[in-house]
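Preliminary data (for renewal application), cobalt (II) ion complex.
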Amino acid sequence: MIETLKANNRRWAEGKVAADPGFFARLSGQQAPEYLWIGCSDSRVPANEIVGLDPGELFVHRNVANLAPPQDANYLSVLQFSVDILKVKHVIVVGHYGCGGVTASLRGQRLGLVDHWLHPVRDVAHEHRHELDAIENENARIDRLCELNVMRQVRNVTSDLVVLDAWARGQPLTVHGWVYSLANGLVTDLNISVSRPEHAAPLA
Ligand code: CO
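Predicted structure:
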């Protein structure tokens, strides 16, 4: 029921003000998040909640299969604004195990327009087909492709001119790759964090 959402909203806003009377006044003045989250649109992966951050603390970009495609104006605008204007210190690409977009890409399922969007994931699957084919269990194969996809997106971010220019002028910026587990609510750090252009090369 849509009315429930409005009632929830009123209760949420009242709760925030009760805990911190200046909360909205302060936030409406400016935002100064230190993190950009690039994650999947999946309803089970709520960015702020997972990492315990309040409004104002996390700049968020979500799309199907958490992609950072180098020609996508939406993603590029978010990246450029958050790095150049907000000066976030961390960009976190967050995939999730069991991702529907990744699953469809691996299985070659036809879902519609989204199949075009998922083209880069099929490319990653093709490039890593030998490793993926060697994994017998399908869920494990999907989960590995979720990881490989995050690695590729981290590479996209770290090779983008916005990020390279930020590093060139000495701006502190680290790009991370994580994968979230729907099964236990925990993120796994893929330990591929990159803070300098010369460390950006060897990712999937
Ligand atoms: Co997903």
